[in-house]
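JOB MANIFEST
job_type = single_chain_structure
chain_count = 1
residues = 318
[input]
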Amino acid sequence: MRAPAAEPVPLPSDSNDTWRIGGTVLRVCWRGDLARFRREAAVAAALPPGFPYPEVLDAGSDGELAWQLTRAVEGVPLVEVWHTLTAARRRAAVHRLGAALALLHEHRFPAQVVELLTAPRRLDGITDVIGADIVPLPLDRALRLLDAARGIDGVPAALLDRVAERLHGLTRTDPLSAPPAGSAPAGIGCLHGDAHPGNALWHEDEVVALLDLEWVRFGPADLELEPYLRDNLGTPAWRTADTREVLRLLAESHPAAFAPPDLVDRLSLYRLVAAVRSLVIAGRTADADPRPLPLAPLSRAADGDAHIRRLLPDGGRR
């Protein structure tokens, strides 16, 4: 399919080069796991009715880059208008987001889609591990990244030793220690993989789309909470109080994500391994990116679970 003959307008994206071209959006992936666009297109074609996702018009790859063309959806990221919304509209927005995630997790996809999502990944090098998932689990992935972090200039060995000790204590909580292959065991379902207000579009007083299924994977429902353990969800205006409010409303609309009895430990694990991945990414791009290494988030993640308990409804007590 040929994109419309219109002037391309660059759009912000953390993982791809993205343009709005008339009534379509073109995304080009040239790093990491190029197959993630293939997985996204397969899932998008089999989504349950009512899941708010843009129509995928075409997709492809030449082995060096992958691309995807979707129909454009009007709206602005929910995170950008969050502080202008009334409490009732915030509740409606998060309930819509939570209901969509619950629908996705419970949906029975065709066997070929399940096989595609659960097929073993080729993780020959550190770049492959980084590009596989935002949360590098099973734990052996995170441990490979931790070893790579020891080769980054400016990273204190004492910090990485603390991280290793903390990971050792959380080993038993890894829900993906025995990853599914060709089927989805109880409690394991389809996840968006990066669902948060920055990836939800708000238009005419409602959430009209949940974007970027490229990180889709199979896993437990609580793994969808990982984005809320990040520092600011990509905007300095986002506050801890906002995260607490969203999580309280998500608990109402997607209770399965808050159901594990060891939720605090699991979220501690997700937060820590994602921080290790972020450090390795920064270390590998330090020559082109003058920003300091993200040592502080990693240190905070290694300190314990007090921050997570402050975020969760009822302090995460079960």
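[summary]
The beta strands are 9-11, 17-21, 24-29, 56-61, 66-71, 76-77, 188-191, 200-202, 207-210, 217-220.
The first strand starts at residue 9 and ends at 11.
exit_status = 0
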